[in-house]
Amino acid sequence: MENISLVLQACAGLVLFLFLAWVFSEDRKAIDFKSVFMGLAVQITLAIIVTKFSFVRSGLFAIGDGIMLLKDATFAGTSFVFGYLGGGDVPFVPKEGASTFIFAFQAMPMIMLVSALSMLLFHWGVLPFIVKICSTFFQKTLRVGGALGVCAAAKMFLGQTEAPLLVRPYLGHFSRSELFSVMTAGMATTSISIMVVYALILEGTISDPIAHILTASIISVPAALTISRILIPQTGETTSGHLVVPYQFSGSMEALSQGTSDGVKLYINVIAMVLVFLALVALVNAILAFLPSFGDEPLSLQLLLGYVLSPLTWLLGIPWSESIPAGALLGKKTILNELIAFIGLASIPKTVLSTRSAMIMIYALAGFANLSSIGIQIGSLGTMIPNRKQEIISLGFKALIAGTIASCMSGAIIGILHSFG
After folding, report:
1. Is the pLDDT confidence value at 195 over 70?
2. 123 and 252 in contact (C-beta within 8 Å)?
3. What does the alpha-carbon distance between residue 38 and residue 208 come to, in Å, rounded to a whole number?
4. Residues 39-86: tens digit of each pLDDT
5. How many domains are contained in the chain?
6. Is 145 a domain residue?
């Protein structure tokens, strides 16, 4: 009986998400409802395929196992460079209950390895081939232009800065709707460079976390295209175009070098963001501690966000008793970033958030929809098409909302499918 109630909650959430997008649409009369229903159908179909078909799940698990092999490979490098700080043999006996895991030296360096390998696969033509296949699929099923299809397909693997580079010559010709779709897809999904870090953080929280994160990245793309085209419908002709290789390397070593260099920048940036934002949360909580307590708990940012966003997480199919801690995680992701939210998710006891609820939240959190991403998109897209920078700025917050809705739709759909076994 409880399962039926949770399924109905999630179904109501999906309907409400689509309805709110319709209410706030810039031109409700121009909405192509056939594409909307097709987009939702594609998302649900993809979710069913990757969760219910054993051979597809096996493929995802194989990919996940391959990615997790990178952890051991990275440890070989970190243990040599950083010694026991990087996962090598500890030259002392740790205190009982103490952990020798150091986030900056054991988890984060994998970003550099994955970045280097991604660039190598791009140079070899593997990633462009996969992107081309996915692009064709989105063009045929969701009726998007070729250039947008390439960018959306690439967003399943690349970051919100790298994916638009593949269609840079066409960006200036994108309609307002297509540009908004690019921004929303950037907010709703993550990148392969950072997926492995999420998986390391979530080890022990849920089985095969990398498979869930990969699935989230796949099924959130059609949701992003659907929601974005409700909020800003496409009018007129779509922009045709094909994949453009933004990098020209003389050989594999140059590709590895470029990938490593890009990975170092991302590594430093992520560490700095985590350090600063965690410190800011602690500072805000210290200030809030001077205010009267709320019930049995001291007032904190997490508690406030939990109450504000608890109705939203309830609509994902999460029991009301667990919606406040889930809402706090969604608030952390939106105000800070998803990395800090995943760290928070990994630290929540299963008595507070069930395995099913934790799984739903993985999908809702697996995206770049946060305030800092608005600045990233303004900086990157504004540089690529400077004559439309003001338009990008005006669309930033709306893209954040649309990306959040798309990720939440993925969480709701996964929750529904999980309830049926």
Report:
1. yes
2. yes
3. 30
4. 999 999 999 998 888 888 788 778 777 777 877 788 888 888 888 888
5. 1
6. yes
- Predicted confidence band of residue 103 (pLDDT cuts 50, 70, 90): confident
Query: What CA–CA distance (Å, rounded) separates 311 from 99?
Result: 36
pLDDT reading at 361 higher than 90: yes
Residue 41: what pLDDT?
93
Tokens matching residue 134:
């996915």
Residue 347: Cβ within 10 Å count: 10
For residue 389, CA distances in Å to 299, 384, 396, 416 come to 40, 9, 11, 40
Q: Is residue 321 part of a domain?
A: yes
3-class SS of residue 297? strand
Nearest-angstrom CA–CA distance, 284 and 300: 8
Mutual angle of helices 338-347 and 192-202, in 10-degree steps: 20
Host domain of residue 16: 2-84+99-419
Is there a domain that residue 91 lies in? no
Q: How far apart are CA 101 and CA 107, in angstroms?
A: 9
Report the predicted TM-score, pTM, of the whole model to 2 decimal places: 0.84
Q: Kindly state whether residue 235 falls inside one of the protein's structural domains.
A: yes
